[in-house]
Amino acid sequence: MSDALVIAHDLTKRFGDFTAVDSIDFEVQPGEAFGFLGPNGAGKSSTMRMIGAVSPITSGSLSVLGLDPVTQGPELRSRIGVVPQEDSLDVELTVAENLMIYGRYFGLTRSVIRPRIEELLDFVQLNGKRDEKVDKLSGGMKRRLTIARSLINQPELLILDEPTTGLDPQARHVLWDRLYRLKQDGVTLIVTTHYMDEAEQLCDRLVVMDQARIVAEGAPADLIVQHSTREVLEMRFPPGTQEENIAQLGGLAERMEILPDRVLLYTPDADSTSSEAHARGIRPVAQVSRRSSLEDVFLKLTGRSLVE
Amino acid sequence: MNTYLRMYEREARVYKGVWRGSVFSSFVNPFLYLIAMGMFLGRLVDEQTGGVAGVTYLEFLAPGLLAATAMQAGAGDSAWPVLAGIKWQKTYVAALASPLRSRDIVIGHLAWVATRVALVSVIYVLVAALLGATGLASGLLAVIPAVLTGLAFAGLVSWFSATLEDGIGLTNLFRFGIMPLFLFSGTFFEISRLPDWMEPIAYITPLWHGVELTRAVALGTEPPLGRLGHAAVLVGVIVVGTALAARQFEKRLVV
Amino acid sequence: MTSMLLRVIPLPFRSAQRAKYVFERNVMVYRRAWMIIFSGVFEPLFYLFSIGIGLGGYIGDVTGPGGELVSYTAFVAPALLASSAMNGAVFESTMNIFFKMKYQKTYDAMLSTPIGVPDIAVGEISWSLVRGALYAASFMVVMAGLGYVESWWGLMAIPAAVLIGFAFGAVGMACATFMRSWQDFDYVTVVTLPLFLFSATFYPLSVYPPAVQQLTRFSPLYHSVELVRAFTFGVFDWSLVGHIAVLVGMGAVGTAVVGKRLHRLLLT
Question: How many domains does chain A fold into?
């Protein structure tokens, strides 16, 4: 018997003829940050909705906190927190009132909720906005409020669906920092994202999803070791000359990916590959050498970029 | 091409996209009132009183309802659409990025409202004539005062809408302004029936002048202030309303 | 006690113990926007005054529900009460539900907590009932003050208005779950205005030719008007049972459809 918080086996979700999630298996352990990485439409949100007990599973099995989401929905939902993809705040209410009424949905008494509001506003750095109407908040603040709201019932498990999509870089970093602290406090996180940097920053372990299936699973660093080389050399050629240049690149790298605007060479040492290419008389207009990332893993596994 | 005509064209194009929704509010609704109140309820009124102001209740109500419909169309087109142009969709803001000036926007908008009120009124008169509620020729002539009535409200409401930040003010305008006017400004009954203290209030509302003038033209009678008198009041309100709206648009859009 | 109650009330209401929190949310939102609710009181009053002053003066007396002559204003007042219960319930249920469902995603937020679909349906409908009762009560106060209520049975007009609000609110909410865009709201008045004008609201049914009289019986507002009129005049007969049955039926069907539709729209 596993002590995992979420156990999915053969989990499938169909909408009519369309299969959104196609018999996937995964387990989420207590205290870890678990990620679903994949492009839009890969089936991440459908999986999250099933875990959150708002979408019945079509077949297979799913257990969350030892409960059955289909028959024990209310009990299950009272113990988890959900940050949906789209903010669903009450725009007519103030910041504090949003937290109050959401706490009431859980059946908590006002005297229990009141101190939690102050704590949570502190935590997401919105104390100054306590009595402001939600209408007036920036996108990043709304997102932080949504996170505060999802914590009002002190959940054991927090589900975040694309928590930073649409935010500017600074707001994203603030959010990541808060999520990291939650993890430190022992809250288990499940995060979906189509940003590889987000997945690398936040997740201990992740699955890569594509077209309703899981195509890889592991810790971010392991996935890179497993599916990619240590480094990557990116080359950009003058318009119209990419083809003739590619012809001369043969044998330079372990693997080569050809994108419409550039060529990626997978190699243990980008600098030496670069000098070799130079010696062959190849002259790109621009080149970058960098470490391999999850983006490269995804590209190799699916042949497509994550964000198109 | 005059610059305000470009605004006129824009408003007309928008309307082409949404006219279906307005068919009921501005074309069908007035007939429903005319049939329910004029024909059926009118039968009761005529039985008891032998007619109102010397004509059947249906003939009395028809021109009053024409003026009230013109008011509602003029006010309605200058309420949410104007606030949307300024604040929500910001189409007026976009228009100002072209050579249009804010007064072109106001005049183009009002010219379009006048066209629409005329259209609504003509169709109303045709059907009212079919129901025997008005003569065809005199009814069509009454479209002119109806359009003046519509414009009087369009100017004032455009100005008011341009001062607002959200739609609550407009909801209140219709609940506490347009609706009571509809019910108390001589559309459904002669205002001599109002309590003495209320009568002077009716005199200062533009709708009363619109109703009196429209009714006088339709029935061939002489209204209290004379036709020219009522017409002068309406034109005065149009001028003031347009000027206020132009100034407010300038203040709001050019910052 | 509770378990017995649960067995009596219809299915959609059974697992709705958390409906009170949905209700509480509305109270919280409108605490700041009470003016919107308050100003809704005036429209039927304006109609009442206008008719009392104007048409009431022209028409004098008409034949009331019991066959005796009654003042025209006293005849129309209960109809205005019934109509405003209808209008209030329809607009509240269609506009607000649509906005919360499509734009604000309020229900999605609620459903990620222990709250379920039956809680939402029951909470929202109860809210519109309480709102309707407030309107009805304030209208009754004015009506009675002006002497248009002929019987102590008139007090029953308030629960009657709540029943009307339930019937139209449930059906309106069911319709809102089928709406795609704001344009669809134009069709709401296409239904409510003819009902308002032609349901024997402004004149006795006898004004119509016999065929139209029969047709009017299909109008749910006609049954609402007759119900309220019976109470304000204290004149009863067996048709009262029919009027109530029509309204209860509408409310039950509407609620059932709402439960089904919300389930389909929010929990797939």
Answer: 2
Both tokens of residue B162? Answer: 């341009």
Regarding whether A264 and A152 lie in a shared domain, the answer is: no
Q: Which tokens hold the place of C187?
A: 């069709």
Compute CA distances B98 → B12, B255, C107, C145, whole Å: 18, 16, 43, 59
- Reduced to 3 states (helix: H, G, I; strand: E, B; else coil), residue C109 is helix
Q: Does residue A87 fall inside a structural domain?
A: yes
Q: Which residues of A touch C111 (CB under 8 A)?
A: 54, 77
Tell me which residue has tokens 């005329």.
Answer: B118
Q: How far is CA C208 from CA A70, A247, C55, C71, C98, in A?
A: 56, 90, 19, 20, 37
Distance CA A200, CA A189 (A): 14
CA distance A201 to A220: 9
Structure token pair of residue B62: 């028809």
The one-digit pLDDT tens for each residue of chain A (308 residues) are 468 999 999 999 999 899 999 999 999 999 999 999 988 888 999 999 999 999 999 999 999 999 999 899 899 999 999 999 888 899 889 999 999 999 999 999 999 999 999 999 999 999 999 999 998 898 889 999 999 999 999 999 999 999 988 788 888 888 899 899 999 999 999 999 888 888 888 899 999 999 999 999 999 989 988 988 889 999 998 888 888 888 888 888 888 888 888 888 999 888 888 888 888 888 888 889 998 888 888 888 887 765 54
A152: nearest CA partner in chain C: C113
Q: Is residue C25 exposed (0-12), middle (13-18) or buried (19+ Cβ within 10 Å)?
A: buried
Sign for the pseudo-dihedral over CA of C16, C20, C23, C24: negative
Residues of the domain holding A108:
6-219
Give A101's contacts (C-beta < 8 A, 6+ positions apart): A90, A93, C21, C24, C25, C28
Same domain membership, residue A185 and residue A74: yes
The complex's ipTM works out to 0.87
CA–CA dist C130, C27 (Å, integer): 11
Could you give the CA distance from residue C168 to residue B253 in angstroms, rounded to a whole number?
43
Residue A1 forms part of a structural domain? no
Contact C33 A92 (CB under 8 A): yes
8 Å CB contact of A74 and C116: yes
- Pair C135, C84: CB distance under 8 Å: yes
Residues of chain A positioned with their CB less than 8 A from the CB of C263: none
Q: Is residue A191 part of a domain?
A: yes
Tokens of A294: 């999850």
Q: Are A120 and A152 in contact (CB under 8 A)?
A: yes
Q: Are residues A272 and A158 in the same domain?
A: no
pTM, two decimal places: 0.81
Tokens of A175: 């959010």
Residues of C in contact with A77 (CB under 8 A): 111-114
Given an 8 Å threshold on Cβ–Cβ distance, is C58 in contact with B48? yes
Tokens of C78: 């209960």
Same structural domain for residues A138 and A264? no
- For residue B192, give the DSSP letter: G
- Domain span at residue B204 reads 3-253
